[in-house]
Design brief:
The complex is a heterotrimer of chains A (253), B (669) and C (294). Chain B is an alpha+beta fold and 669 residues long. In chain B, the strands form five sheets. Chain B has a five-stranded parallel beta sheet with strand order 6-2-1-10-18, with helices on both faces. In chain B, 38% of the residues lie in helices and 14% in strands. Chain B folds into three domains: 295 residues, 3-Layer(bba) Sandwich (FAD/NAD(P)-binding domain); 160 residues, Flavocytochrome C3, Chain A, domain 1 (Alpha-Beta Complex), CATH 3.90.700.10; 133 residues, Fumarate reductase/succinate dehydrogenase flavoprotein-like, C-terminal domain (Methane Monooxygenase Hydroxylase, Chain G, domain 1), CATH 1.20.58. The radius of gyration of chain B is 25 Å and the shape is globular. With 294 residues, chain C is mainly alpha-helical. Chain C has two domains: 191 residues, no CATH class; 71 residues, no CATH class. In chain C, helix 2 packs across helix 10, helix 9 packs across helix 10 and helix 9 crosses helix 11. Classes of the chains: A alpha+beta (253), B alpha+beta (669), C mainly alpha (294). Chain B: It is an enzyme of class 1 (oxidoreductase). Chain B: Belongs to the FAD-dependent oxidoreductase 2 family. FRD/SDH subfamily. Chain B: It is a peripheral membrane protein.
Chain lengths: 253, 669, 294
């Protein structure tokens, strides 16, 4: 391990009082940041400094701080979840930065993700897409068939899992030049399309989820592939292709 | 107050079936007339809300996160237990029941745990039907692995993200109900008080975290599924937002709080690295299937490692102390969590710790043996019966990557060290709280109509929870227990009609909440919320942590009482009440943590025995193992709130009866 | 599913982009094969090919399909671009393009460049070929048997007369037709129809059919003393834009149609990239070749 050291940085952070007000980029100077700190711990440190100066701390979404809840959502130096791949912002560490660096921190930008305050955005559009069809219609019951009664080929189960690993953070939308949510929707559609349990409702599911996705105001996929690169869970573009396929199948049915 | 656990009569294995058959029902046409509030959308909350919505009740679900999918159940890594016996290794409902009771150090209710084991199989069936992509074998059947405290393979998993997959399953069921309009979801809402009318739970006061509006919500029953209180320690594996407020508020309204001192310290977390650290990261227990835990035998080697003069790979095999294998040959590295954690503390206290932090606390989790073993197996499986050492190593690493790739990557991102090449550094961290709101067999608290599920209640894990059992309990409560027991309660509510939120009780509760918010905002102190939270955490970790003693606990009680005073005097909260204000959210949570912290110390002090996660240094056997006192402490300690001064809380005891299991000293040797 | 979804849904828009795009790739391949005759064929071959392409009914149908595809591809592309711009009303202060290729991010710009190119290309060649009254016809300098050189139009294979004489100035002049009319006592009253045909008005009989000299037009265009180099450079740049457009677009079409598989996709990607390099490169070589040809 490279030994931790302290660095001084300049921060350019989007500040916006609430959804209705106009925001702007503000500049802050933060000294003595340990390179062993996570990026969010650096923001904690900034907030502690702001509170001590009787200024309003920066609001940002975060929760589990271990890369799985999908809350954190920062656009750092022009990249979703910052200058590293395969991680969320909370897993980004300050050792990725150098002394004297200027770091831009902005919220996800998308019509479907309006800013609530500072760096916090509203991602309930994803929930509504899920509500439109991201489920198997099975009621709770102690009498569902035994879990092993339908064998599922390991390849399919593994692919379904890889798609289901999506944490719903919205980095795909944030990074896509079109603000498209197709990686998110594609992953959900794929997970179910790959499993026998999900196949029953496959037709309706893909049509409904895509309809909702369009209604939310997300942009359209132009296959730039940026989402796949920036996705902290490495969800593959293959899932978008599968959704396209499923949609085609469903459309001609 | 007499605690009635309402455990049904009859033979243990028939209790739940019998009980279910005699519970009252609410007819489908009456269910839409009944409102239910569910607070929390983790495994227990989401599964309960989805199931109750499906049944036809009007459900309102609340979570403080921006989406129900982000509840902290999502972070569970390793797996979920179920007595399916798919691996033909002699597993059964009874064995799962027995392992769980024993793992809990004989401090859990037999009837509850047996019910848990009974429905465990249904959970897997239900989840698979929902499209949860569990790991499978090449034949298409579900795969299993082992976890601590068991000698069978009964843990179902989805790579290192089982909690995520299960929660997304429950979330999908919940989403379906929201889409159908049967559940109304309130994201970014925090419950700040419970409203009681005529002694019954009739609603909650919640704050809309975006607008700051204080809202009154009424219901015929309230389910609290808000998780555990590990964040009392500031540093824990819990999410930053995880809090005890919902549980603590109902405690203040009359629900007893049971066994608060039972805290699970998870043995395999990444050690603390610095003062600005905000949270600790868990490395799944499943790693103990493949990793061997050790520290240097010689103190001077440990010192040299801490000073950066030696690398762990330079320590010769004979100079390594694989202390778990040495002390517990039968279970080895797979002893239960409390045992593994304590053993780590012991070797570090003795000066063998390897992490260069303030406390030198850290031990190695080494995969080199596994790399060789699995590498050789893989080579043979590929038909190569004369593999070179390089081939073996490469194949072994490949095997590890397939099994634990995401965990290894996570470790590397956080620590900047490559665990394929050098052993992981780990140390115990606060992970799960077995204690919680006291509930009866029906999961109802001492407040009628107020039910508590999942980690928020105290019911199933005794003094220590076995790995992969939390997910099982959360889903069991939400899918298979609450829907029955809550209907039994609601059967008497079909004539109640809509409950007004304009009653004096609601207005009073609302005023209480508003008052406390405005007090904090106008306090004009000088110190941030985190300042106090960190202080509390330090007291708790040092004196109410892995090793506890009378002196430390007594000091802790006084220190926390003092901290509480300072907190109310000195805390500064910026911003206003009518906006998104994370500092305000924090201050309200920390206020409750401080009070609970004091109660935890009191509970630990009164429990003059060692059991599971509660280790009193005064009560250990000759080999340093926990020494229970079954004669005097075979009870659930449930505390009753008696006003602002926590030290006045009153202890009630629910005697634990063991009819099926012969209670014995826990032995993993 | 609602019928309108076939037009409105975001995914269907992708299908249309993909289908029209792939069709246009086919068109490119065909067009290239024809154009390469400018280098590897004779002027006659090329002009015969040009004639075939403008008269064959099947080719006509195909060409209409091509026009529609181009239009649809462009309009759908513009609609998508507008929708995509709307999806991010507030942009980022700082961006970093490292996670996607330049081509993939700029398909609309590249498409616009290509569209402008297609428009000028059609004005310069297609429109002249179809509508320009001054479009040169294929001519040949011949000995008239009296030691005199004379310029004659060359007839197509189906033409009744293999050649048609022109007047001194090399034109089909009215005077010349008058002379013939007089010489034949009014039997042959000739007139030019459809730019290439010489018809006897009396009988309606086509006595001569020449064909347009697209080869000459093309060579002259790129060899133009004043603008030839400029045209050549413009053409090459447009082909560069096309290369980038195809680099992303070819494989992207298969992705949009969901035509992917672990075995096929690498092959499609490889083929797409090869196509994106080879086709525009060959296209671009032609004007360079013509420009510098002695």
């Amino acid at each position: 391990m490279s030994a931790a050291k302290n660095i001084n940085i300049n921060l350019k952070i989007w500040r916006q009082k609430n959804a209705n007000s106009k925001g702007s980029i503000e500049t802050y100077k933060l000294d003595n940041v340990s390179t062993a700190s996570s990026f969010l711990e650096m923001l904690d440190q900034l907030n502690e400094q702001l509170i001590n100066e009787r200024k309003e701390p920066v609001a940002f979404d975060h929760d589990c701080r271990e890369g799985i809840c999908g809350s954190c959502s920062l656009y750092i130096n022009g990249r979703a979840h910052g200058p590293d791949t395969g991680i969320t912002t909370c897993q980004l560490h300050m050792r990725m930065f150098n002394d004297g660096d200027t770091i831009y921190i902005e919220p996800w930008r998308s019509k479907a993700f309006p800013v609530i305050k500072d760096l916090v955005v509203d991602r309930t559009a994803f929930d509504r897409i899920q509500q439109a069809g991201g489920f198997v219609s099975v009621n709770t019951s102690g009498n569902t068939i035994d879990a092993n009664s339908i064998p599922v080929p390991k390849v399919d189960a593994d692919k379904a899992f890889e798609a289901a690993a999506c944490i719903g953070c919205g980095a795909c939308v944030a990074t896509c030049k079109n603000g498209s949510a197709m990686l998110f929707v594609g992953a959900k559609v794929s997970q179910y399309a790959l499993l026998p349990q999900g196949k029953v409702e496959a037709t309706q599911r893909v049509l409904n989820m895509v309809r909702q996705m369009d209604e939310e105001g997300f942009g359209n996929c132009t296959n730039t592939g940026a989402c796949e690169i920036e996705c902290p869970k490495g969800i593959s573009l293959e899932n978008i292709a599968r959704m396209n396929r499923e949609f085609l199948k469903a459309s001609v049915k | 107050m007499k605690l009635d656990s309402k455990i049904p009569a009859g033979p243990l294995k028939d209790k739940w079936t019998d009980h279910k058959n005699h519970l009252k029902l609410v007819a489908p046409n009456n269910r839409p007339k009944i409102d239910i509030i569910v607070v929390g959308t983790g495994l227990a909350g989401a599964s309960a809300a989805a199931s109750l919505g499906e049944m036809g009740y009007n459900v309102k679900a609340f979570c403080f996160q921006d989406s129900p999918r982000r509840a902290h159940s999502i972070a569970a890594q390793g797996g979920i237990n179920a007595a399916k016996n798919y691996q033909n290794d002699g597993d059964s409902i009874y064995r799962l029941f027995y392992d769980t009771i024993k793992g809990g150090d004989y401090r859990a209710r037999e009837a509850n745990v047996h019910r848990l084991a009974e429905v465990s199989g249904n959970i897997i069936d239900q989840c698979v039907a929902q499209g949860v992509p569990f790991a499978r074998e090449y034949g298409g059947m579900l795969d299993n692995r082992s976890f601590g405290g068991t000698q069978v393979q009964r843990t179902f998993y989805a790579a290192g993200q089982t909690g995520q997959q299960l929660l997304l399953g429950a979330y999908s069921a919940l989403s379906r109900q929201i889409g159908l309009g049967r559940v109304k979801m309130y994201n970014r809402h925090e419950m700040l008080d419970l409203v009681k009318v005529d002694g019954k739970a009739r609603g909650i006061i919640a704050r809309n975290l975006i607008t700051g509006e204080i809202e009154r919500h009424s219901a015929h029953a309230v389910v609290i599924a808000s998780g555990g209180y590990g964040n009392v320690y500031f540093l824990s594996t819990n999410a930053m937002g995880s809090n005890v407020t919902a549980g603590w508020k109902i405690h203040k309204q009359g629900a007893l709080f049971a066994n608060p001192c039972y805290v699970q310290i998870h043995p395999t977390c990444i050690p603390v690295h610095g003062t600005n650290q905000s949270k600790l990261t868990l490395m799944s227990e499943s790693l103990r299937n493949s990793g061997r835990i050790w520290v240097p035998k010689k103190k001077e080697d440990a010192e040299a490692i801490r000073a950066g003069k030696l690398k762990p790979t330079q320590i010769a095999e004979e100079d390594r102390d694989y202390y778990l294998e040495r002390k517990y040959p039968a279970f080895g590295n797979l002893v239960p969590r409390d045992v593994a954690s304590r053993a780590a503390k012991e070797v570090c206290d003795a000066g063998h710790g390897i992490e260069a932090n303030d406390t030198n606390e850290g031990v190695y989790l080494d995969f080199s043996t596994e790399i060789q073993t699995k590498g050789k197996q893989s080579a043979y499986a590929k038909g190569n019966h004369n593999p070179t050492p390089e081939e073996i190593t490469a194949l072994g690493k490949q095997w590890l990557e397939e099994k634990y790739g995401n965990l290894f990557t996570m470790y590397q991102k956080i620590t900047d060290e490559n665990p394929y090449e050098t052993p992981m550094k780990i140390y115990p961290a606060v992970h799960y709280t077995m204690g919680g709101v006291w509930v009866d067999y029906n999961l109802q608290s001492t407040i009628p109509g107020c039910f508590v599920a999942g980690e928020a209640n105290f019911s199933d894990h005794g003094a220590n929870r076995l790995g992969a059992s939390a997910l099982m309990q959360g889903l069991a409560d939400g899918y298979f227990v609450l829907p029955y027991t809550i209907s039994n309660y609601l059967a008497d509510e079909i004539r109640t009609g809509k409950i007004s939120t304009d009653s004096p009780e609601f207005l009073e509760a609302e005023a209480r909440v508003k008052d406390s918010i405005s007090k904090f905002l106008n306090n004009n102190g000088t110190k941030s919320v985190d300042y106090f939270h960190k202080k509390l955490g330090l007291i708790m970790w040092n004196k109410v942590g892995m090793g506890r003693n009378e002196k430390g606990l007594t000091e802790a009680i006084a220190e926390i009482a003092q901290l509480k005073e300072d907190f109310y005097k000195e805390v500064y909260v910026p911003g206003s009440a009518d906006e998104l204000n994370p500092e305000l959210e924090k201050v309200l949570r920390v206020a409750d943590f401080i009070e609970l912290g004091q109660l935890m110390a009191m509970d630990a002090l009164q429990r003059k025995e060692s059991c599971g996660g509660h280790f009193r240094e005064e009560y250990q056997d000759a080999e340093g193992e926990t020494l229970r006192d079954d004669e005097n402490f075979k009870f659930v300690g449930a505390w009753e709130y008696k006003g602002d001064d926590i030290s006045r809380e009153e202890l009630h005891k629910e005697e634990l009866k063991y009819e099926e299991i012969k209670i014995a000293a826990r032995n993993y040797k | 599913m609602a019928k309108s979804a076939l037009l409105k849904s975001s995914i269907v828009k992708k299908y249309w982009m993909a289908l029209t795009g792939l069709f246009l790739c086919l068109f490119l391949a065909g067009h290239l094969a024809g154009n390469l005759q400018l280098i590897f064929g004779t002027s006659q071959q090329f002009n015969e090919y040009a004639l075939f392409m403008t008269t064959n009914p099947a080719v006509k149908l195909l060409s209409y399909l091509t026009y529609i595809s181009i239009l649809f591809h462009a309009i759908d592309g513009i609609m998508l671009t507008i929708q995509n711009k709307k999806a991010r009303p507030v942009g980022y202060a700082k961006t970093d393009g490292s996670s996607s290729s330049l081509a993939s991010r700029n398909m609309a710009v590249l498409g616009t460049v290509i569209m402008v190119f297609i428009a000028t290309h059609m004005v310069n060649f297609w429109a002249k070929m179809h509508f320009d009254k001054n479009m040169p016809l294929v001519q040949k300098e011949m000995d008239n048997g009296m030691g005199q050189k004379q310029i004659q139009l060359v007839g197509t294979k189906d033409s009744q007369m293999p050649y048609m004489q022109l007047d001194q100035s090399g034109k089909l002049s009215k005077e010349f037709f008058e002379t013939i009319k007089m010489q034949t006592q009014g039997q042959y009253d000739l007139e030019v129809q459809d730019m290439t045909k010489i018809v006897n008005k009396k009988t309606g009989e086509v006595i001569f059919e020449g064909y347009k000299d697209l080869y000459k037009l093309t060579v002259d265009f790129f060899k133009d003393a004043k603008y030839g180099l400029f045209f050549t450079i413009g053409y090459v740049l447009a082909m560069l834009a096309l290369a980038f457009h195809l680099w992303h677009g070819f494989q992207s079409a298969f992705q949009s149609l969901g035509a992917t598989s672990s075995k096929l996709t690498p092959a499609i990607k490889f083929f797409g990239r090869a196509f994106a390099i080879i086709v525009p490169l060959l296209f671009a070589i032609i004007p360079i070749f013509l420009h510098f040809k002695k």
